[in-house]
């Protein structure tokens, strides 16, 4: 091989190496572009999923109806009927409902824990309790059917604090908290340590919460003779209205009961909602 041929061979090798390098760079650039496109597609998919989750927020309810209290002279017929009717209405409107009847202290504690496990940051969460309620130290307690109460300290030990359930909802990051308490009845416990029943205490609404109780704080309401309590009868009637916000439902229920009783029974509504929540559909803000 002469010198000229050697130079040509070296030049060919160099050009081939350069070509290989260019091809490699092109392949690498193409792969990088593909990765960027894939990442962008994943980001769009995640954003769309998040948006969809916001549009279809989870709706969770715990419904408790306590009627058979051994310490009462007669069982309460309405709370269990009310719990069943409300459960059917809420399920029809897309709620995941956990219903508990004649709940003991342990039953109620387990039910609250089940609800806690379901709550997500986008959740609309509802608590209903029908039965006996007692206030102690400006705090309201739901009374289980197995409670043995002779003094105020027994209420704290054996009852379930409504405020504690609200605090749990807040700590879990629930988007909206709805509470309906039909428990402002004359109960068989307070006469053991009080001259008269004090009803429920005011229930402070944490952020983005809506609370309906069957009577004004410090007042009691007698049960009627119907299948459902007065509160549940009006609540169900307003709940069945299409595309109605929860705050409107609760306020219409309050006004209807007040008018029907000529002011003898005036439910209480407390709200800190930042956006209204439609019980029969998506939230007004969603």
From TrEMBL:
**Annotated ranges, domain Caspase family p20:** 57-188
Spell out the Pfam families in the cross-references.
Peptidase_C14
- Please identify the protein, giving its name as recorded: Caspase domain-containing protein
Per UniProt, what is one GO molecular function of this protein? Answer: cysteine-type endopeptidase activity
Q: Which residues form the signal peptide?
A: 1-31
Enumerate the UniProt keywords alphabetically: Signal
Could you tell me which SUPFAM superfamilies the record lists for this protein?
Caspase-like (SSF52129)
Q: Which InterPro entries match?
A: Caspase-like_dom_sf, Caspase-related_regulators, Pept_C14_caspase, Pept_C14_p20
Q: Is RNA-binding set as a keyword in this record? A: no
Which biological process, per GO, is one annotated for this protein? proteolysis
């Amino acid at each position: 091989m002469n010198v000229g041929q050697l130079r040509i061979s070296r030049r060919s090798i160099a050009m081939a190496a350069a070509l290989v390098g260019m091809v490699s760079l092109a392949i690498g650039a193409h792969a990088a572009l593909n990765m960027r496109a894939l990442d962008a597609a994943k980001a769009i998919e995640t954003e769309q999923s998040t948006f969809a989750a916001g549009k279809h927020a989870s709706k969770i309810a715990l419904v408790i109806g306590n009627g058979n209290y051994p310490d009462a002279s007669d069982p309460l017929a309405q709370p269990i009927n009310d719990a069943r009717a409300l459960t059917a209405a809420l399920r029809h409107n897309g709620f995941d409902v956990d219903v508990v009847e004649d709940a003991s202290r342990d039953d109620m504690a387990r039910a609250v824990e089940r609800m806690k496990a379901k709550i997500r940051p986008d959740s609309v969460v509802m608590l209903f309790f029908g039965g006996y309620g007692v206030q102690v130290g400006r705090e309201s307690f739901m009374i289980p059917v197995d409670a043995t109460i002779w003094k105020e300290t027994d209420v704290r030990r054996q009852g379930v604090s409504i405020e504690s359930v609200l605090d749990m909802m807040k700590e879990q990051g629930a988007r909206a908290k709805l509470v309906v308490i039909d428990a402002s009845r004359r109960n068989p416990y307070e006469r053991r340590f009080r001259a008269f029943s004090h009803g429920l205490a005011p229930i402070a609404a944490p952020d983005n919460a809506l609370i309906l109780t069957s009577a004004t704080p410090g007042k009691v309401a007698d049960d009627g003779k119907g299948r459902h309590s007065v509160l549940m009868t009006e609540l169900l009637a307003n709940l069945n209205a299409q595309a109605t916000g929860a705050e409107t439902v609760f306020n219409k229920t309050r006004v209807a009961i007040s008018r029907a009783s000529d002011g003898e029974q005036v439910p209480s509504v407390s709200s800190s909602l930042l956006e209204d929540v439609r019980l029969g559909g998506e939230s007004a803000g969603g």
